Amino acid sequence: MQELARLSSMAAALLNTAAAIAHFACIFWGARGLRLLGAGERIASLAEAGHWYPPLISTAIGTLLSLLAVYALSGAGLLGPLPGQRPVLAVAGAVFLFRAVATPWLKPLFQGNNARFWVVSSAICLTLGLLHLAAALRS
């Protein structure tokens, strides 16, 4: 059981890192990257216009995901314990799970996002939620 929780923590760190890299890449890819990831035409148009919002939100999300990757690595025992480790991992798991199941209610608020975005991001959030909760149990 401990080994499964450890592997879950490492998988959470890996997925968080991949998602963070994708968000940071959108800063450089601009509208094309945002469209590729399914973020929607409204935010892609803002990026094309040089608006500050798309890179800011990409930076914020990428930074948060990077921080969660560090916490997950700590949960796996690969780093020393971090302050609030268990609650941070548990809250992250709950937020990811909420995002995964809240898709029907969120979709109307972000109508520009394509169907691929909703399916892929919800599956990733479901996976990350379960992995973070497993990491919180191990911490």
Characterise this structure.
Helix 1 runs antiparallel to helix 4, helix 1 runs antiparallel to helix 7 and helix 4 crosses helix 5. It is globular and about 50 Å long. The chain has one domain (2-138). With 139 residues, the chain is mainly alpha-helical. The protein starts with a helix and ends with a helix. 79% of the residues lie in helices and 0% in strands.
Whole-number tally of structural domains: 1
Q: Helix amount, in percent? A: over 70%
Shape: globular
Count of individual helical segments:
7
Q: SSE string, helix = H, strand = E?
A: HHHHHHH
- Using the CA coordinates, give the radius of gyration: 16 Å
Q: Indicate the proportion of strand residues.
A: under 5%
Oligomer: single chain
Report, as a whole number of angstroms, the end-to-end distance. 13 Å
How much is the average pLDDT? 91
Largest sheet: none
* Structural class determined from secondary elements: mainly alpha
- Uncertain segments: none
Record field, number of beta strands = 0
Give descriptors for this structure:
single chain, 139 residues, mainly alpha, 7 helices, globular
Sum this structure up briefly.
By secondary structure, this protein is mainly α. The protein has helices at residues 2-29, 31-36, 41-48, 53-75, 85-101, 103-106, 115-138. The chain has seven helices and no strands.
Explain the layout of strands and helices.
Elements: H1 2-29, H2 31-36, H3 41-48, H4 53-75, H5 85-101, H6 103-106, H7 115-138
